[in-house]
Amino acid sequence: MFRQEMGRSTRKKKSNIILALDLGVDRPQKLMTRSLRILNATHEYLCALKLNRQAVLPLGLFDGVQKIISKAKELDLLTIMDAKINDVGNTNRAIAEYYYKAGFDAVIASPFVGWTEGLQPVFEVAQMMNRGVIVLVYMSHKGAVEGYGQIVQDTATRQLIPQYTIFAEKALKWNADGAVVGATYPEKIREVHAVLKGKVSIYSPGVGAQGGDAEAAVKAGADYLIIGRSIVEAEDPAKKAEQIRDIAWQSLKGRGRKIE
Ligand code: 3DU
What pLDDT, on a 0 to 100 scale, did the predictor assign at position 154? Predict the structure, then answer.
């Protein structure tokens, strides 16, 4: 199962860092060369690789992206597609199936579409293909407050409650493999952690370029840090990856977090 594989990879690599390989807009050939170079340089400090549509659009899923996935697997890294799946169920199922067929170990999906005719088909196909689903709970950017941060009436209990608390509860109920909470909001990580109680891992993007702090995020309860620009745009990506890995790993150990 994906969550156990993440645990295994984390223990083996002594790293809870997931590289977000986002390289901006460039020619496909250059993007491919750079992607492989960065992966080769940084892999020993990582437990997984995350790609998003920024890579799939120029490289193609079954052309370039599959090559990057194969390289990642060779380097013993798990792969996550940050698709933020967010459509009707039938479309969601097809999107997830294509990403899994291309070799991704997990996809990220948006809980705003709900379960029935929303994310249920994604969880079904994930179970069939033995892959993972990670759901968004609170994004890292400022505008996240307009959606994830709204105070809403829970349809089940009629109580007024933050949207992200409901999403954290859904992550538990749906048995998701992970919940995304921005590293830019350690207090939200803490709150979500109190709901998830370690049963669903917290994945935190937003360290560095977006202003989040690795130590604060992990101390608040983040299990994995998703890092893009701080590493890929660094003068020495390997050194930077190692530095962030060391901070995150020490903080995780300090928290006494047992990796499954
Ligand atoms: O800001 P960075 O360059 O470290 O990249 C963060 C990555 O995480 C990037 O791929 C972005 O698409 C993704 N992400 C968030 O930044 C915030 C979220 O809530 C979810 C995913």
Answer: 87
Whether 7 is in the pocket of ligand 1, judged by its Cβ within 6 Å, is no
Q: Which active-site residues does the annotation give?
A: 84
Query: E strands along 112-248, which residues?
Result: 132-138, 151-153, 160-162, 178-181, 201-205, 224-227
Under 8 Å between Cβ of 23 and 37:
no
Give the residue, by CA position, lying nearest to ligand 1 atom 10. 20
Residues with Cβ < 8 Å from 225, sequence gap 6 or more? Answer: 16, 17, 18, 183, 204, 205, 207, 214, 217, 218, 244, 248
Mutate to test the pocket of ligand 1, among 21, 210, 226 (most ligand atoms within 8 A of CB): 226
Question: Which ranges of the chain have pLDDT less than 70?
Answer: 257-260
**Per-residue pLDDT reduced to its tens digit, 172-230:** 999 999 999 999 999 999 999 999 999 999 999 999 999 999 999 999 999 999 999 99
The torsion of the CA quartet 209, 215, 220, 224, rounded to 10 degrees, works out to 70
**How far apart are the CA of 21 and the centre of ligand 1, in A?**
10
**Backbone dihedral angles phi then psi of residue 32, each to the nearest 5 degrees:** -65, -45
How many C-beta neighbours within 10 Å does residue 258 have? 9
